[in-house]
Amino acid sequence: MRSPRPYNFSAGPACLPLSVLEQAAAEMCDWQGTGMGVMEMSHRSSAFQSIISQAESDLRQLAQVPDDFAILFMQGGALAENAIVPLNLAHTGQVDVAVTGSWSAKSADEAARYAHVHRVTDTVQDGYRSIPAPSTWTLREGVDYVHLCSNETIDGVEFAELPNLRELGCSAPLVVDCSSNQLSRPFDWSRIGLAFGGAQKNIGPAGLTLVYARKALMKSPLAACPTAFSFERVARDGSMFNTPPTYAIYIAGLVFKWALRFQYAGLQGLAALDAQNRDKAALLYGALDGSALFENRVDPSVRSRMNVPFFLRESSLTDTFLAQASQAGLMQLKGHKSKGGCRASIYNAMPLSGVQALVDFLQDFERRHG
Amino acid sequence: MRSPRPYNFSAGPACLPLSVLEQAAAEMCDWQGTGMGVMEMSHRSSAFQSIISQAESDLRQLAQVPDDFAILFMQGGALAENAIVPLNLAHTGQVDVAVTGSWSAKSADEAARYAHVHRVTDTVQDGYRSIPAPSTWTLREGVDYVHLCSNETIDGVEFAELPNLRELGCSAPLVVDCSSNQLSRPFDWSRIGLAFGGAQKNIGPAGLTLVYARKALMKSPLAACPTAFSFERVARDGSMFNTPPTYAIYIAGLVFKWALRFQYAGLQGLAALDAQNRDKAALLYGALDGSALFENRVDPSVRSRMNVPFFLRESSLTDTFLAQASQAGLMQLKGHKSKGGCRASIYNAMPLSGVQALVDFLQDFERRHG
């Protein structure tokens, strides 16, 4: 009998469904009788073409991505996209950014290398614990796009819903860095111009970047844009302008199949993941709010369902807590180095039982040390 | 008993050593007792830090990369590097390129988006079958760098040795796209300023790019360079400015270990691979040159030891040949779409027995159809 796996709360790369890893291991040397592993196949082979096509159509079905969006499989992660997006879209050189955490702040800084950037809101003084209502943002007329990060992995703040820019009188496309909450909940694609995210949280291995681009938005990039990072070119070549990260796409495809079959509370697919993510977050925040030792400091209306930073009021106990948690099979709970404290990332592949185990441990630790 | 694997002659992604795939499968769900697979580990974790450090030091030992070179683990492949290199190095905007095949031609075209490009030689009229002696190249004074492709994957021409630019009176650094022959033979690093290559031929999965950069050459890139692709920044952050392609680096590390242990003809490591590659190429070219049906059209002095394009003099037999070869377990022998015909890529992981099986099949096919 196999001993139970520890629960891995890494912010990314993050835990994957065990069934996905087991299938990948079983197929490592021979994918479906081809005599080759997926890593060894030409990206132009019919075998790999079937893998990438299936992955794209499963992702489209799962996340209900409309047909007027292209799905691109790219490389470089969100940090590269922070440059690639303005290189593709900032034709007039005016970009609005909502700075609601460490990642959108980085995006604003990088975009400022290619365009004039105006921060329509910036919560740095608040320690990135809240999101001002979009109706208060100082949106400008005629900008190339408005950027936001739908979930701030480091700070643990998440948009409960995406702003409707048109209702706010803004006709610019909305660009969403959804690295850490893509596939965790439904998105209202009618509000989105372009979204992007690294795969290494809810989707698969690091080294794969998903880009969801409204087809009408894609045109020739700025002159400085490397051809390999032109959305228009990558879309035209079906993500095969350069050799795509084939094995990462295969793993992502296995995760999409797992997600499509996922069941919870009588639901299936993204609806089931959404419901489980809601329940997992409620369970963990409930425990933190009911504790005299642990605390989460984010405005409850914008708390992230994916990344839960928390602190021990007696901070000298933090290292003891982390060491004992690790011994108890609750791994990678250390907070981001810029914030200190602890952080539990509870992406799609973290089951409710993992969050329950963490909550039980928090309460036990508090009894022993509180 | 396991049935033998077919031989996979793909140009890349390409075959990997079976022992590497078997170890990766065995460790997929639990790397060395951590309870986590490598794909699931934070890139900042001590476990992954040990993986990337070991991979770098093994690669440095294997390829004898001097200490005054940084080794960077990047993303985007050679096509992205075609832009990233001038974005980092073309400070005066003057670049020389030796065009000896399809890849160096692409590099010249992409570099021309960032700099004035002068082709010091161009063999397109010759069908990329030869390499004029570097002493005949029209090298210019004071350029930012001289680019060449050490092995042309599509055309099958390879530099038997890298030019010594200083002996030719040129003080510019040499930039080498070594995607398809890195680790297949020793390089004379004293002649190189910077080298780069996609991993998916001799090293591992697609989605990982190796950059070997002389430290003295790294400085602030051009203003348009995305921060994620600044050599200087990536080096300073130990390839952790953005999340690196962690699983691909792990696989590459297993391949480096395999290569360090590789033995052939009384040799070990890179010397053994070099010797086997020489013998594999001699066996295959010998069979082609001795055939009345098959032919290789490249100048014998610059024939690639990695990629062997060949043609049937009776071209109507090509499809029959490819179908029968595939049936006989000799896979992915179709030529690049721009060239037609056939191509056998015989990278490090292709054993001598695979080339012998191909030669036997060529001779058998010729007996039956010649």
Structural commentary:
- The structure is a homodimer of 370-residue chains.
- By secondary structure, chain A is an alpha/beta fold.
- Chain A folds into 2 domains: 7-16 and 263-369, Aspartate Aminotransferase, domain 1 (Alpha-Beta Complex); 22-259, Type I PLP-dependent aspartate aminotransferase-like (Major domain) (Aspartate Aminotransferase, domain 2), CATH 3.40.640.10.
- Helix content of chain A is 32%, strand content 17%.
- Chain A contains 9 helices and 16 strands.
- Chain A has helices at residues 18-26, 46-62, 77-89, 102-111, 231-236, 246-261, 270-289, 318-327, 352-369, and strands at 7-8, 69-74, 94-99, 116-122, 145-149, 151-152, 157-158, 174-177, 194-198, 209-214, 263-264, 267-268, 294-295, 307-312, 330-331, 342-345.
- Chain A has a 7-stranded mixed sheet with strand order 2-10-9-8-5-3-4.
- The mean pLDDT of chain A is 97.
- Chains A and B meet through α1, α3 and α6 of A and α1, α3 and α6 of B.
- Chains A, B: Its cofactor is pyridoxal 5'-phosphate.
- Chains A, B: Its EC number is 2.6.1.52.
- Chains A, B: Homodimer.
- Chains A, B: L-glutamate binds at residue 44.
- Chains A, B: Belongs to the class-V pyridoxal-phosphate-dependent aminotransferase family. SerC subfamily.
